[in-house]
Amino acid sequence: MTDKTATTTEATDTDTAGTDTAGADTVGIDEARNDAAGADAAGAETATGTGEAGPGDGAVGGDDVLVTVEDLKVHFPIKRGIVLERTAGYVYAVDGVDLTIRRGETYGLVGESGCGKTTLGRGLLRLVEPTGGRIVFDDTDVSTLKGETLRKSRRRMQMIFQDPLSSLDPRQSVESILVEGMRAHGLDSGKEATRARLVELLDSVGLPESALHKYPHEFSGGQRQRIGIARALAVEPDLIVADEPVSALDVSVQAQVLNLLEELQQRLGLTYLVIAHDLAVVRHISDRIGVMYLGSLVEEASSDEMYAEPMHPYTKALLSAVPVPDPTVEDEREQILLTGDLPSPANPPTGCRFHTRCPWKQDTLCDTNRPELRDVGGGHRVACHYAEDILAGRISRHEVEPELVHPDA
Ligand SMILES: Nc1ncnc2c1ncn2[C@@H]1O[C@H](COP(=O)(O)OP(=O)(O)O)[C@@H](O)[C@H]1O
Ligand code: SF4
Ligand SMILES: [Mg+2]
Question: pTM for the full model?
Answer without folding.
Answer: 0.84
